[in-house]
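Give me the fold.
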Amino acid sequence: MELYEEEAEHLGPEFDTTRQACREAILKSPALHYLAHYSNGVFDFGVDVLGDPAPEPGALPGGTRREELKRLGRHLAFQVTALDRALQEVRTGRLIRTVLHTEEGALFCDSVVPTQQVVGLVLDHAGVGPLFGHPAVEEADRAVARLATRLRAELSLGSLNPGGWETADDAEALPAVRATEPHVTAGEGPLTACVEAVRARDLHLVAHVAGGEVLTMVDCLGDPALAPFFKQVTVDARRRFYHGFTAELGGLATKLNRAVAPVVGGLLARLVLDVEMGAVYYYRIGTGEYLVGVTIDQARVRDADDRMSALAADLTPFGP
């Protein structure tokens, strides 16, 4: 497939190495269909293998798929900035990677520095099964993460380890036996399944929401093995924050779904908000019903996502 490139009028030679890195990323990853770079929410350039025809000379901006992707990227960049501010309340660092996974594709937004993001897209992924670990989605996800890390290296900055892939194999395993029983904040809904899913090793909090109400919320944040993660904020403060954030996440997912669906297609089924210390996960179960998971260990972001995917599959009548 031929590589198509588009650039904004303000682009100068200072973006040359960044553009080359994006070209190489999309050519090396067959799953990745589109990449764009944004600064302060403004589109800088994009490269893609969508196969859409180039606009006619003198054509006015309109409703092409590339124009829709540019608008979606701007919207996502601003949403990420707002979410970043909200999530900093619990001292888990900046929002470094966002995954919007629909029934027909996935969109990724990874931070290079707080004012610069790369946005990637995979379309028409085939196959059924668990959302987490889908081959095309994971390949594209990793490709965007590697690109963000490469662009940080250009600025002499170290990796933020988006996705936790860089340290997943090196992390020291926490005890498998529970030192304390999970804390139950809300005990209706699928309590037993949520209690079984939570553990200090990776998935630290699970909640179930239906009809706008948090019916179940259990966590192991008070486990002694997690004490090093609470030097700046108390366990109770994190519980209060995640309870409120969980209730609000459904509304956010609905807004994101409206923005993403016309371009990517399908309903938003999985959302990952990957911060410097862990991640927040959203898994859609049905109309007005979803699961939320939290890990506060960056090395366990992948494991916790896998565990959430399995729980969602168990609780979804027709699969996630």
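The radius of gyration is 20 Å.
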